[in-house]
Amino acid sequence: MTRVELDEAKAQALEEKFDSEVRFRKLGPVATQLVGVLLVALSLFHYYTAGFGLLQEVTHRGIHLAFVLGLIFLVFPMAKGGYDGSLAGSALRPLGIPLIDWLLAAVAVVAVLYVPFTFQEIAFRVGNPNTTDVVLGGALIVILLEATRRSIGWPLPIIAMIFMAYALFGRYAPGVLVHPGSSFSNLINHLYLTSQGVYGVALGVVATYVFHFVLFGVLATRIGLGQLFIDVASWVAGRYAGGPAKVSIFGSALFGMISGSSIANTVTVGSLTIPAMIRLGYPKHIAAAVEATSSTGGQITPPIMGAAAFLMIEFLGVPYQSIIVAAIVPACMHFFGVLCQVHFEAKKRGLRGLRRDELPNLREVIKTDWPTVIPLIALVTILVMGYTPYLAAFWGITLCIAVGFLNPRRRMSLMDLFVAFRDGAKYALAVGAAAATVGIVVGVVTLTGVGFKLSFIVTGTANDLALWTTSWLPAFLGDQGTLTLLFTLIMTGIVCILMGCGIPTTANYIIMVTIAAPALVLLGVQPIVAHFFVFYYGLLADITPPVALAAYAAAGMAGADPFRAGNTAFRLGIGKVLVPFVFVFSPSLLIMVEGFSWSGFFLGLFGAVAGILCLSAAFAGHLLVDTKHWERWVLSIAALLMVAPELYSTLIGLVVALPVLARHIVAWRQVPVAAA
Length: 676
Description:
Blueprint: H1 8-18, H2 29-52, H3 57-75, H4 99-117, H5 119-122, H6 131-152, H7 155-168, H8 184-193, H9 201-222, H10 225-237, H11 243-259, H12 262-280, H13 284-295, H14 307-316, H15 320-349, H16 362-369, H17 374-384, H18 389-406, H19 414-448, H20 450-470, H21 480-500, H22 505-515, H23 517-522, H24 527-539, H25 549-558, H26 562-572, H27 574-585, H28 598-620, H29 629-642, H30 647-669
Helix pairs in contact: 1-12, 1-25, 2-3, 2-9, 2-18, 2-19, 3-4, 3-9, 3-19, 4-6, 6-7, 6-8, 6-19, 7-19, 9-14, 9-18, 9-19, 10-11, 10-16, 11-12, 11-13, 11-15, 12-13, 12-25, 13-25, 13-26, 15-27, 15-28, 17-18, 19-22, 20-21, 21-22, 21-24, 22-24, 24-27, 25-26, 27-28, 28-29, 28-30, 29-30
GO molecular function: transmembrane transporter activity
Membrane topology: Multi-pass membrane protein
Function: Part of the tripartite ATP-independent periplasmic (TRAP) transport system.
């Protein structure tokens, strides 16, 4: 038996190397201790409130944001580089941190806490801010943009500044985008003193839900749950053709249940699977692409699913268990699509599975590591019972601590617990700043009404394209309404991918829900379906060049060309491209929709499975034997017909694909048994 152990230190180092959101400043010894204590204090604050009651809404969000912004200026440098010790202890660099960063941290804390601690007074002057309100609000906006730039880069702050400029100078905007414009004090009032801006729902979700699940994921990994998932995945899938690649898929699906992060998933699971894939014979760029594509499923795999899932329950007003149920089939379809292409690639290259001596002993694995799954089972059970997600996370974290202290195989010390609480808070800093900055965008949208104007532009353009298309397209292939929706989906998907190239998934989701999802709802798409559509397409940015962060992280680990790995990852993720269109036209696939029917569910599921299978074979160049060039085109056309919502189009797609399948069956039977 071969059992490769997860090296958590190595995985963390790789994550910091490839993910700007956790690329922290090198601190001196005293500063490290101080920052560590503050990070642990933030984790303890959320752990306590999750179990014993949240504070008043604005107070809870304010304390969270004060910690986040203050710590960002201590742990993220102004520019690339880090502490070199040359000015440690000087007046310009107390404890090795520049004085300007200490000042920015202090101003951020004061500006943030001003609102919750003077809320009773502020409530009476909302709409008529005084000078102090405007000065502190303006300072917070500037500091927030800088904190976001440091933690995730320029794109999101630039987007926020463009929206603020639009709010101030809307009278000069073209066409339907014109509006009277807002004064500076009125803009600050809306963004700073109301719950429609910085202190809005995005920050609230991060402070109320997301932080707790990030902390749970860190603790669950530390007690060995990640290792258990890898071992189980190896035993289930490793023996089949292209074994390590299939382990990557199953392992990433399981690990994604607790990580909720594409890059964390990539570097943790990939540290084991990428070298194994390369040793087995996969080209480096394919090994990197397989892991990256599998790992992007982490944010769509219940029960955790990353931050966007928790935002959905706030935006849609539905229970979290409804989001979990709705996510099951689309997540399975994503991993099914990757699995199909990996299998076809392995068969095409003649790659073997892992030998028995290379597989872990499942009985021994379960015997030694079964306690690590207790916290996850408890968390899911509490969620399904209808309790709040943060209470479920509280008990999940509590049981992680208990298992860590009681499990003799992976016993945690108090220092290990300190480090886990510290790292959990560090991983949540960037998403906290991003959520507050997205609040600026949402605030401008609610202040100016630009969301509905953009929806009008999108649907109008789609309708014009539909009119032009119906002038030459046969009527049975789609009416004007269907084509209008199709073109709206295509344009929305493209914008989601482009936005995702520069900003985190959570921020992308909030922006697109605010300005793009209303266009889909106007065309009759149910809100939960529209939200899932923009969520899925925002995730595609992690594997779509030119900024495919998950693919580039995997490429760095594999020593592959990043752009080539990104292109291959996008090809492997074709299921994630296709599935959102399927559940828009066949919403029963999400189960938790109005008008759900089992007939619609099974028809949509069959079409999705068959379509993904055909499209995967077309892209991989192999079904039962290698495909010919013309067969790829036939399979692609058949796939698009199969995923259409009507039964007749699915049947037509099957008829189109039958000649290719027949030739492959005949050719496969003629292959010598030894070669097969």
